[in-house]
Amino acid sequence: MSRARHVGLPRWLFGPALLAGAFVVLPVASMTTRIALGDFWSLVTSRAARSALVLSLETSSASTALCLLLGVPLATVLARGEGRWLGPLRSLVLLPLVLPPVVGGIALLSTFGRQGLLGGELEALGIRIAFTSVAVVLAQTFVSLPFLVISLEGALRTAGERYDVVAASLGARPTTVLRRVTLPLVLPGLASGAVLAFARSLGEFGATITFAGSLEGTTRTLPLLIYNLRVTDADAAVAMSLVLVAVAVLVIGLVRPRGAL
Amino acid sequence: MSRARHVGLPRWLFGPALLAGAFVVLPVASMTTRIALGDFWSLVTSRAARSALVLSLETSSASTALCLLLGVPLATVLARGEGRWLGPLRSLVLLPLVLPPVVGGIALLSTFGRQGLLGGELEALGIRIAFTSVAVVLAQTFVSLPFLVISLEGALRTAGERYDVVAASLGARPTTVLRRVTLPLVLPGLASGAVLAFARSLGEFGATITFAGSLEGTTRTLPLLIYNLRVTDADAAVAMSLVLVAVAVLVIGLVRPRGAL
Amino acid sequence: MSAQVEVVLAERGVDVAFEVADGETVALLGPNGAGKSTTLSVLGGLLRPDAGRVVLDGEELTGPGRWVAPHARRTALLAQDPLLFPHLSVLENVAFGPRSRGSGRRDARATAEHWLAEVDAADLAERRPTQLSGGQAQRVAVARALAAEPRLLLLDEPMAALDVAVAPALRTLLRRVLAERTTVIVTHHVLDALLLADRVVVLDGGRVVEQGTTADVLSRPRSAFAARFAGLNLVAGTATPDGVRRPDGLVLHGTPGDPPPVAGAAAVAVFRPSAVAVHREPPGGSPRNALPVVVSELEPLGDLVRVRAGELAADVTVASVTELGLAPGASVTFVVKTTEVDVYARPFEHR
Amino acid sequence: MSAQVEVVLAERGVDVAFEVADGETVALLGPNGAGKSTTLSVLGGLLRPDAGRVVLDGEELTGPGRWVAPHARRTALLAQDPLLFPHLSVLENVAFGPRSRGSGRRDARATAEHWLAEVDAADLAERRPTQLSGGQAQRVAVARALAAEPRLLLLDEPMAALDVAVAPALRTLLRRVLAERTTVIVTHHVLDALLLADRVVVLDGGRVVEQGTTADVLSRPRSAFAARFAGLNLVAGTATPDGVRRPDGLVLHGTPGDPPPVAGAAAVAVFRPSAVAVHREPPGGSPRNALPVVVSELEPLGDLVRVRAGELAADVTVASVTELGLAPGASVTFVVKTTEVDVYARPFEHR
Amino acid sequence: SDDSSGEDGKDRERTLTVFAAASLTKTFEELERQFEDAHPDVDVKLSFGGSSDLAAQIAEGAEADVFASADTATMDTLVAAQLTVGEPAEFATNTLMIAVPPGNPAGIEQLADLTKKAVRLVLCQPEVPCGRAALQVADVAALELTPVSEEESVSGVLTKVENGEADAGLVYVTDVAAAGDDLEGVDFPEAADVVNHYPIVAVQDAEHAELARQWIDLVLGKGQQVLRKAGFGAPTS
Ligand SMILES: Nc1ncnc2c1ncn2[C@@H]1O[C@H](COP(=O)(O)OP(=O)(O)OP(=O)(O)O)[C@@H](O)[C@H]1O
Ligand SMILES: Nc1ncnc2c1ncn2[C@@H]1O[C@H](COP(=O)(O)OP(=O)(O)OP(=O)(O)O)[C@@H](O)[C@H]1O
Ligand SMILES: [Mg+2]
Ligand SMILES: [Mg+2]
């Protein structure tokens, strides 16, 4: 609605806001000036690039889905649940954020790897996770989960419980309340969270290379390809990074619901 | 208040929530089983470790402050401003999230580096950024800014403009509205955002090593030290990671205001 | 569905107990902050009291070691704030209750349409709650609560914000609907209490100060609030053989009502403002009650003028006002015949 | 501070224009959804109309190409929803306006304390808004609006949710305060309009259907809503030489008022419910008006009973009700003397 | 790793997985083409990384058929863990070179120039082979090198020098060759005293022991030409 309320923003706010925008955009822009456009297309359309791009999109989508599946319940419990154990749990969920991704990969290996905690059980079941595409998804989920959980929990807290209470008093059981009231009301937060998780998965490198390795078609996602290229051809690496950025901006632009994020 | 409203959560929710918690906590826990406690102390208290820890805390605090300084205005403009250019800007702010951090470092080099876009100007002013602690802060700010902006923007959107409007109608000028109503109301979101930014800064590796390099005392933060150690002594790296995790959980636990996050 | 209610909530200074008989409508009256909304919240299971119990038709819903979740109570609460779900259309809002109780999509829709029509909001069905005016939102909220078909209906000021055209219609609707339902309703309007409630429970400062049938309480109030609410004058004091002695010593003579007061015990004298005559000078002689007062306010009241003097009021004609030169600040005497004054024992103390 | 208001908002179907003289209090009346809150929002600068202008004391605040931000208008709006700042204490809420206008911390605090005391909420000063009851919150919101000391005060149903004890006190306060202020007030209660407003503007369906001094409009309403609001009967039709002809042909005889109706033009006949006698059979002979009606509702009204029949009402004694066997559904005749019926030309058409 | 492969790999029944040090990227990609031409039914999959990372992955169960390391120390750990088949064979050597930005703005001509105060030097961290080699060279020349940064890998050093951020770095000859016009190299005599040896070995559990052997043969035989062209030295043993 065009005739919305107009409180107006303080003028001085635009100064630092502009500076912030420039601080993010300028480096990326100035990096692009470095690469020749000629090589760009052949590079970007090479077999290795295409296979990495497809793999990246597939695994990032899968890990975003997994994040939603695990993260929505966790965020809800953290935001609405009661109990002294929630405080520590909330801090623990942040772990993958602070852990350098490579260390995260080591942690995943020590759980799901052949010599890991669950390695024996998984082996017995004939399941091998490390160095497969599944490992890529797990690595991405591990690093992305906190993003979804924290955004969503924040949104749930800000939205408050007023409408949940009304719904319950109208006879809606907790599952119905969650599905028809709580989650629809925090849709912007949920969408932000999912987009953050997807973006983080798309850019994930350290945990993936440690836990999943770097094998074309199976585990070599776009960031891993970029890393590979960097050794031999720095310009190519930058070009591929731009592809990654373009894909992310595109997917996010298409996916995100109106007003969300 | 203990007699708060009780809507109750669906029971089945605890299943996936628990799984999500386990998925994050288990790998970190199983990693700890790998290291011997004896070496742990001597490692953790070594000079290199201490200097890295101090540097990490200093730079992360500085970058969190910088994120707040730049990010709060940007998030406010994105959430409350009007204009067609806001849509693209919102997507662009996500760039550092998708960009593999190493590429982010390259981008920063191509802006603030000696031969970068602003390199000449900075050189003329006698300012050298690369290989200094300032570069570390800039690298951390670059990767952490989106976290703060997105959390805060989501919170601002969820909170809505109702109270801002009331404040304005009582005669509060935009700056007063921002300071006394808008920001206090989204304090939980702001705190979450700051904590996310701090955590991300603390774990930052790729952009730092690319843009700032790695020298003990000046630019070698904890993640860089961990990476250093990893090649020769994986156990030591794991031990240091645990220190990182402990510091993060501690700082976050102490800093975060009640109910926030 | 009969209900027994006991609520103790120390933090809000509330300690209330009353009963609701099957099919009965009870009006909760009382000043702002008396604990009305708090009591409804406890009944609806939205607030857990420190002590007390809620029993609905023999089933304990709240009690020591017992807690039935809100959705399992089959109560429906219309809160003071409409709180329509902002992401659902008006129709979906009203259909929410039926859907939650297991109705099919089509049935729920039909139910919702029915109730929307009843509150004269059928044409708003497709709107979003943000596109409603205050009164429209209130009506939709009423429809939503009614559509939930609860065992116990809890209405917190359902008629607030309604315009003069809609209010009577909605009152008529509620009267029809509530006749068959067990209901607790909170209101600040005497007409609602009179027309909708079988019984009233008067709260003040978190305590029940009076309860009884609506007619009884409103015609023979024993609490200051109920008298005020009914538009009656009330003088509290201790019983004398034929009247009530105010703390300042003045005695008001009257006829004993039922229950008759015991001399020396707490008692109240009640009389209608229209029975009060206003004199500039205290009249001599006859055995009437004369109260010296200072006029605080004049209010037009249809063809009459209500002269307020503190807690007391007198209804006089416009002509008398001019004649007597009445204005705020004027010292006058309120005179009332002994036969017009009823004296009752005061069963509840305002603790 | 005089104000000129013109508001066109197509999306909400609002097209309204009126003026407020310096120091005057104007009451906006009208059914739910008539556009009252919308008009206040435009005045306060919270909504930008499609067209129209707001001029306050010669200064254009809203207009083509002109827009003064809300905070710079020196208007204060008490909205329908109290919306107290949840992170500030009650005192800080009330002090917010003075602080924003540049008062020092101590001055603002004193002002806030003053207004809190005025609305009888001094003891709530240190509470958080979430710890208030509905009526308490409403009172604090009133105090907050008054404390802002605006040039133009905008009050949207300030008396909603108030108990019977507080409402008269707050009305007295407002009466005192508004006497010196330029104010636009929205209300659904006739008493508020009568006691607080110099003039009333009646909106219906987004249009001004009637305006004039309060006494004029409430005693001689020309719109159905104003009549309803004033508690008067109104019959609309076309003027005959000595009365009004209803669309169904029935003629109501009366005495022409000011402005006198022109035969054939739109006119209304207005009479008080107390002037209506109720008969079971149409009485023969005398030159009186007889309206056959069906009783829809009975409402107690103090010592009397209001008999409603659709849009019309008659006030009779309890004795007559029993005697005539009145009940909803009964067919009766409303009889009113010609001298009791006033006939006015209808200046505004309900478009 | 038989479940997925590039489009080209669809009609190839067998897969050979080769783990190789990052510095071998260009040469091994060339050898992949040669090998696949010779074996139309084989899809060669290459995984590059730091030698120690790759070794760790193999220890954790990554399915590799061949492992080519950039240093003998890493190879020794794998052998000690009994994850290899037969003795590792050395297939190339590498020596250090000073890398400078195009035009050599700091005017570096010999190793001793690196100790000048104005020169911003970057090295690999001592924990990785090129860093270790740099320390050894400094020892041999009796110089004390004070870098402004110790990078985690060769590519870190290259990035800084290519960007002109650093005035010089110590990397391998092959790295300078691979960088083309982005860098210039400065030889110094002390480099010959510190030689890095590249061993290759078949990995135990290898699904395709025969193919692994053929790959190793290619690297030790015809492949030497490709390696030499990229700047690698001949094996010393
Ligand atoms: N969330 C709360 N926390 C603490 N105290 C509260 C809370 N809500 C209300 N109170 C207090 O409890 C008392 C009872 O409040 P309640 O809302 O039940 O009053 P009410 O009778 O509904 O009044 P009203 O007519 O104004 O709606 C009041 O003194 C109020 O200030
Ligand atoms: N945000 C909105 N968007 C679109 N339409 C709206 C919006 N708010 C209100 N309306 C519509 O505009 C019209 C005028 O609404 P407004 O709120 O001004 O009514 P009101 O006179 O204040 O009624 P009430 O007495 O119920 O408060 C109504 O038809 C309403 O449904
Ligand atoms: Mg209440
Ligand atoms: Mg309104």
Low-confidence stretches of chain E: 1-9
Give the terminus-to-terminus CA distance of chain A.
18 Å
Q: Give the percentage of residues in beta strands of chain E.
A: 25-35%
Strand content of chain A: under 5%
Total DSSP helices of chain E:
8
User: Could you report the average pLDDT of chain A, rounded to the nearest whole number?
Assistant: 83
N-to-C series of helices and strands of chain E? EHEHEHEEHEHEHEEHH
What do we call the CATH homologous superfamily of chain A? Answer: MetI-like
How many helical elements of chain A? 14
Major β-sheet of chain E, in short?
A: 9 strands, mixed
Number of strands of chain A: 0
**Bound heterogens, unique:** adenosine-5'-triphosphate, magnesium ion
Q: Identify the overall geometry of chain E.
A: elongated
Q: What is the correct CATH architecture of chain A?
A: Orthogonal Bundle
Class by alpha and beta content of chain E: alpha/beta
Rg of chain E, Cα atoms, Å: 19 Å
Description:
The complex is a heteropentamer, with 2 copies of chain A (261 residues), 2 copies of chain C (351 residues) and 1 copy of chain E (237 residues). In chain A, helix 9 (162-169) runs antiparallel to helix 10 (174-185), helix 11 packs antiparallel against helix 14 and helix 13 runs antiparallel to helix 14. With 261 residues, chain A is mainly alpha-helical. Chain A is built from 14 helices and no strands. Chain A is 74% helix and 0% strand. Chain C has 351 residues and is α+β, with helices and mostly antiparallel strands. Chain C has 2 domains: 3-217, Rossmann fold (3-Layer(aba) Sandwich); 233-345, RNA polymerase II/Efflux pump adaptor protein, barrel-sandwich hybrid domain (OB fold (Dihydrolipoamide Acetyltransferase, E2P), Beta Barrel). Chain C is 25% helix and 33% strand. Chain C contains 9 helices and 23 strands. The longest helix of chain C has 14 residues, at 105-118. Chain C is globular, with a radius of gyration of 23 Å. The model of chain C has no long low-confidence stretch (mean pLDDT 87). Chain E is of the alpha/beta class and 237 residues long. Chain E is built from 8 helices and 9 strands. In chain E, strands 1, 2, 3, 4, 5, 6, 7, 8 and 9 form a 9-stranded mixed beta sheet that branches. In chain E, helix 2 runs parallel beside helix 3 (72-80). The longest helix of chain E is centred in the first third of the chain and has 14 residues, at 25-38. Residues 1-9 of chain E have low confidence and may be disordered. Chains in contact: A-B, A-C, A-D, A-E, B-C, B-D, B-E, C-D. At the A-B interface, helix 1, helix 3, helix 4, helix 5 and helix 6 of A face helix 1, helix 3, helix 4, helix 5 and helix 6 of B. Chains C, D: Residues 284-345 form the Mop domain. Chains C, D: Pfam families: ABC_tran, TOBE. Chains C, D: Keywords: ATP-binding, Molybdenum, Nucleotide-binding, Transport. Chains C, D: Residues 3-230 form the ABC transporter domain.
